[in-house]
Predict the structure.
Amino acid sequence: MTLTNRLGRPMLAAMFVTGGADQLIHPDEKADAAGPIVDEIDDKIDAVPMPSENRDAVRINGAVQLVAGGLLAMNRVPRLAATALAASLVPTTLAGHRFWRSTTNRPGRSNASTS
């Protein structure tokens, strides 16, 4: 294993381990944002059983990030762990990082209407 992998994997995994632990300990802070995403997935995909409480969905996502981050940090099944982390980022991004809905000015763009 290269030095980059030996150092990089635990450093990357640390973000997921701490974020996953936070979701497990404090799910209420993220449950409101997760609500629309949980409902939309539940409506569109019948094959995926969804938890009845938004807090439970946040906890499941946090557990996936915590376990997969730990596996990645220890270099145990790193490809499977990385795949699980990538999959857990989809609902996290949809619920908590809705950059496409931002109304603030972005570099190179103006909020003023153009004619």
